[in-house]
Please model this.
Amino acid sequence: MIEIAFRPDRASDVAVHRQLAEHLAALIATGRLAGGAKLPASRELAFALGIARNTVTQAYEQLVVQGRLRAHVGQGTFVAQHGSAGDAARGGAPAARAFAWDGLFSRRARGLRMPGGRLSDVAGSFPFDFRAGQVDAGSLPAKDVRWALAQAASAGKLPAIATHRDARGWPPLRREIARWLVVRGIACDPDDVLVVAGAQQAIDLAARVLVDPGDAVVLEQPGYFGAALAFRAAAADLVGIGVDDEGLRTEELARLLAVRAAKLVYVTPATQCPTGVALSERRRGELLELADRHQTPILEDDYDSELRYGGPPLPALKSVDAAGQVIYAGTFSKILFPSIRVGYLVAAGPLRAKLLLARTAADFGTGVVEQAALATLLRTRGLERHLRRMRRIYADRLAAMLAALARAMPEGTRWSEPRSGHLVWVTLPPGADGNRIFESALGRGVAYLRGDLFFTDGRGAESLPLSFASLSAERIAEGVEVLGGIVRASLRPRGMRSGRPLRARAPAIPLSPRKEVHDPRQKGRQQ
Amino acid sequence: MIEIAFRPDRASDVAVHRQLAEHLAALIATGRLAGGAKLPASRELAFALGIARNTVTQAYEQLVVQGRLRAHVGQGTFVAQHGSAGDAARGGAPAARAFAWDGLFSRRARGLRMPGGRLSDVAGSFPFDFRAGQVDAGSLPAKDVRWALAQAASAGKLPAIATHRDARGWPPLRREIARWLVVRGIACDPDDVLVVAGAQQAIDLAARVLVDPGDAVVLEQPGYFGAALAFRAAAADLVGIGVDDEGLRTEELARLLAVRAAKLVYVTPATQCPTGVALSERRRGELLELADRHQTPILEDDYDSELRYGGPPLPALKSVDAAGQVIYAGTFSKILFPSIRVGYLVAAGPLRAKLLLARTAADFGTGVVEQAALATLLRTRGLERHLRRMRRIYADRLAAMLAALARAMPEGTRWSEPRSGHLVWVTLPPGADGNRIFESALGRGVAYLRGDLFFTDGRGAESLPLSFASLSAERIAEGVEVLGGIVRASLRPRGMRSGRPLRARAPAIPLSPRKEVHDPRQKGRQQ
Model:
């Protein structure tokens, strides 16, 4: 048996098992415990050192996880050899050559990258967090959620819930979703509803069942990066269509479809992501007419239609879809919280059957405990109450953001004025360096997702999608003030440390070929 | 305003809102409420009829869900017109032609079908439920699960959990999984772990990042139908390799790989699905050597390695994977319950990066509330305690099933004798009509998944994968007795209503080209 002289320092803040792990790591590093050496059984070592067996076990486990020890069931624990899986994984001296994965990836996987930028560019916690996709963490209905989960996991209900296997979803939830969709003007049978893992999976499943490599898929530009990612994962050819203050530019779409067949038109009519613009009634008609004429399916992502703060909501495109040409997707991630991965698809006939098969192949369905809890939240109207509350909170925050932008941003800055959703799309004045402003903002604790994330072709660095969801009205004002200062500073000519900001000399850079998202100086144009 | 003469029958068992809905449905059916007619606002009708407003709302909603009414936000509720989306969806008189989806499906979707048979062939509840994939619903650790969920949704923890967004998974769960894998001999860093939506998604993600249409993927035959489904969804060319009492027949694999490159070898070494055989040590070496020689990735599905009832467990293939060639998948669905859709992948380097991108595109990650609850169950050893308990319970049930088979089955029946998992693979005597027996068994309340579900080419009708997980030892004995009677009866020549069963005259039908799964009369051969 190897001699392991170790005496725990009980006065230390460091837990004894960590002390032991560090001691053993040092013995291994210095070669006093050689590669392949067998360690004493935990019981023996614990006895020899006068410490708890669990302490030894924890130290061993920690070192196994670090790749310094290896555990073989029924044989014992050994010092890792060079070239073991653990070493190879963390770049230690490899005895075996690392497997050459790069040549093996599928065509779909080779083309897979985060569109426009990387989400992880902004990780961590920031005092002024304007990142898209969040909710107000301080307003979560924790009590209702806890109660609904407890119901689902009650001794009486858990057996049925735990053993339920139907990729379509938990029947009570499908019923509640069909009822929930009534306010969107959608009359559907619970059997037409497929519960999915968030709107993202809805998009991905549509891509799986419809898109072959090279097929054209139409996206809004700027548009939702998750959709671009899912369509890239199907090796689609992404075709961007511009967005203006009436939403998707249908005349552009008409020109495209006249010369090229598209497999799918992906659209966010209620709250265009990221501009927040609603697709106008005229454009809705044109879109449906075009889709019908060219027999092109539409994927309607109604992801946050429930978060509407003013103006008459238009019913979903799906509500006037007589032929069943619209695939409808929705989610609870925006109205409850992003990490609840439950959304839904509405589709009928042969499409529904294919979507269900694709879903089964993908993951056999969404966890039923969370589905059952959500069904309870819907049935008891807990979610509706929460939504009403959040509408008030977010309406105030939207107003605060728009007011702060008007106060803080230099002349030439433009922004959308949404009446729904959680984002304001800000476009910097000509001459502003979006990349430099992004870095400076991060340095001052102001975080947002990069604008180019919402384009498929690298444009958008000069745009800032600012979410008003997660900060109080006061913090929003403060953060926009800081951001405005950074933008103003960036507009000063090099060498100038103070003085008036430069006036915009060039015309506004259009993000879409022609018209742009709402310009606050032209009120009344937005319907 | 339309006159709606309705008087609630308070003495009835039928809720008043249902009575009202039926009354309105009758008015619509008889044309007294014509298509397009506007219904009174719920408040008005409630007042007029002297009932609660909520009663009216519920009745309206029910009829909207049925497609008889349509709700337009801000406008009111209307009697549905013929040809509305609701009618079209349920096959009513269509005003618009139904959209022609069939010509639009992707190549992947066109090839998508349930392998071998349909899971839904056996839906519902049966007194003798031997269907694969279930657990003992009576032994669920409901209290621990409830407590762990309550922890996750506590006011203090929910904000961080609800807003967490990292497709890799909840960090504490990845740490616990890395620790959990120590007993499998796997030393991995939490960063090498990707939390996925069950083993099925692990397989699907591997297919997405590696398989192009037409690529060869090697599967065990019989083998796990979920894997076949996921690889079909990638339009792979499925190549079956036989299984015998040492698991995957590596000599067959060697012959295949000598003439054809495979993109992936999918294997279940710990408990071959569905035979329950463990891959022998010799075959493990041969498999790894072959994979190395041909530079072919292995996907190791270790889906129920924890459910081992005897004999020395072999460490995972991944534990000796120096080059990082093995993609390792595991799940909590078998040891906790099937509807918890949480599993994991272990992979490193460029493969992990691609898998993570594919996962992000697929659904942005698994719900974090359930991940956090599972992390708590692991950290507090609640899952370990449950597993120890289930091992004892399942070991008894396996013994009961093997004993019952020996008592009840006619000569010529063969079955595997697994020491792990939840399935016994029974092959009927020559001459038995598997299809007829399946139907008769269902009629007597004995349910199992059809054997041909586990083959990609229609074989297997004469095999019965019997799960011993969900029934007590007594019920197992009873059910197998019933099944044995059906099999015996089916072996009688037509016209004979009693008498001794026919003796097998032909040699046993091998499911694999040569050796077959364990024959109970040849004990000792299984390692």
